[in-house]
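Predict the 3D structure for this chain.
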Amino acid sequence: MLVTVILLAGYQSCPACGKPRVGRVLPAWSQGELDIHAIATYKGECWLYILPDGTTMAVDCGELSPKKDSAVSHDPYTKREVVRHLVPGPEQKASETAAEYMHFFLPAAAADSLDYMLLTHHHNDHMNGIPGLYDLMPFRVLLDRTDTSNIAKDAQKNKNVALYWNFIRSKAVYPHPFELGVSRQVFPRHGKPDWTLLGLSSSGKVMTEEGLVDAYEGEKLSENGASISFLLSYGKFDWLASGDAGDPNSKVLWPVAQTVGRKIEAMKVPHHYAWRTFSARLIELLQPQVMISESFWSHQPWKAEMEYLWNARYDAGRPKDLFLTSPYTVPDGTDNALGPEDLSRLAGYGGNVVLRVAPGGKSFRTYVLDGDGRILSAHGPYVCH
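Done. Predicted structure below.
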């Protein structure tokens, strides 16, 4: 509680700081700005969106158990088994870290609750922190990739979904299935919005130019491929988020990218930059100037995967800036730990990452923040095309 008081005291004094600069607390969001916050909880994925009219939305809140800080996975590139480790982080729960952060950065008029919680898919590093977050930061509307009947069925065979289902019933916070197309479920706070949220995929269905298609065509749906994808647009600014639907590890993200079909300003790196998620064709089609990844395992990002980005063909002069909230840098013999040369290629890393779009959506900046909200590095402005 003491930490929260100190943070708020520093935060309230920031508007007088003038232009945001390194060492200062990031000034508060103001009307007309679009904020996208990647919250570094070290135990899963959690994002906070503050839309230009003040509408607020969290996307996911994962909660990995600190008791299981390593696991064995199959590397599809070398065909060998790899021991992966969690990035060392704070002991407190991800939901507690996320709630403190949200209380700190939400507009004063909405600092005690959220308008929306959007759950992209049913994996523990995206969903297990939602009950704890709700107790600390309630949300009015829950959006899910599917309906209650399917969640209830899945709860019978999956313990993580069972925890989520128990939360839904005990709190009577029943989810609304996410709609594809221009969303009519994320409503603006005031009048007609000057931003749009375009639903592109959910539960394996993808919105294409030909209409809604089943990307899996009757084959078994992967939970990562079931992820919700959406394009958030404001003026000339476009942001793509796609949960854990990567390319080519699911059948979803490539048709999603084809539906977008143009260069965008920024995107969330799919599936935490794990193996087989971030293909060259995807990057070269979208050419995002800024990419942000919430990575918390030692195989995120996988070094071989990063080469797709560094070698991708971009228009001359177009930035190619990658930000990581929590890269794995512990020198314990793990062959995928990022060393000084790897880190030097990143635009920013090691903290909460905030993308702030200027009123009207003509430009944006990106910041890396420490745990007290102070700016570690500032980047931009980037011009929206």
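The first helix runs from residue 2 to 12.
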